[in-house]
C-alpha cells in the first residue's frame, strides 16, 4: 500500500502528469520536455528520475541526450493508476498545448538553445 500511495503522490504532481501526457504522444528528450514545460533540464531530469523509480518511464542514452519512453509499470496497482491517467485529461487545454508544442519542436534547435543557457 505504501508504494501505491507514493505513486499517487508522484503522479499527482502537475509537471509529472504533464510529462506522462506528453510521453503518450511519443518518446521525448529531456531538452524537449524542459522547453515545453518551461523548466530547467535539471528539474525535468529529477521528475523523470521519480517516474523511472516507479517503472513508468525508461530511458535510452543517445550521445549526450537522453530519450524517455512511457512504459507499462510491472506493479499492478501503479499500472492501473497509469492506465487511468492515460485516459483522462485529453481535453485539458494544457495537455493540448503541450502536445502541439511537441509536434512543432525541432530537436536540434531546442537542445542547442538549452545547452547554451
What does this protein look like?
With 117 residues, the chain is mainly alpha-helical. It has a single domain, classed as Winged helix-like DNA-binding domain superfamily/Winged helix DNA-binding domain (Arc Repressor Mutant, subunit A, Orthogonal Bundle), CATH 1.10.10. The chain has a 3-stranded antiparallel beta sheet. It is globular and about 45 Å long. 26% of the residues are buried.
List the helices and strands in order: HHEHHEEHHH
Whole-number mean pLDDT: 91
Please report the first level of CATH classification, the CATH class: Mainly Alpha
Query: CATH topology, anyone?
Result: Arc Repressor Mutant, subunit A
Residue runs with pLDDT of under 50 for 5 or more positions: none
Proportion in β-strands: 5-15%
Report the structural category: mainly alpha
Strand order of the largest sheet: 1-3-2
Topology at a glance:
Layout lengths: L1 H10 L2 H12 L2 E2 H8 L3 H13 L3 E6 L2 E6 L5 H12 L5 H12 L2 H9 L2
Antiparallel strand pairs: 1-3, 2-3
What are the salient characteristics of this protein?
117 residues; Arc Repressor Mutant, subunit A; 3-stranded antiparallel beta sheet; 7 helices; 3 strands; 12% strand
Gist of the model:
With 117 residues, the chain is mainly alpha-helical. Helices cover 65% and strands 12% of the residues. It has one domain: Winged helix-like DNA-binding domain superfamily/Winged helix DNA-binding domain (Arc Repressor Mutant, subunit A).
Amino acid at each position: 500500500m505504501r508504494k501505491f500511495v507514493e505513486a499517487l503522490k508522484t503522479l499527482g504532481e502537475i509537471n509529472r502528469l504533464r510529462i506522462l501526457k506528453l510521453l503518450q504522444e511519443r518518446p521525448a528528450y529531456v531538452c524537449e520536455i524542459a522547453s515545453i514545460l518551461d523548466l530547467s533540464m535539471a528539474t525535468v531530469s529529477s521528475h523523470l528520475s521519480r517516474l523511472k523509480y516507479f517503472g513508468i518511464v525508461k530511458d535510452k542514452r543517445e550521445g549526450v541526450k537522453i530519450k524517455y519512453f512511457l512504459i507499462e509499470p510491472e506493479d499492478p496497482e501503479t499500472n492501473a493508476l497509469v492506465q487511468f491517467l492515460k485516459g483522462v485529461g485529453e481535453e485539458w487545454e494544457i495537455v493540448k498545448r503541450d502536445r502541439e508544442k511537441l509536434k512543432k519542436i525541432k530537436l536540434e534547435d531546442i537542445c542547442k538553445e538549452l545547452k547554451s543557457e
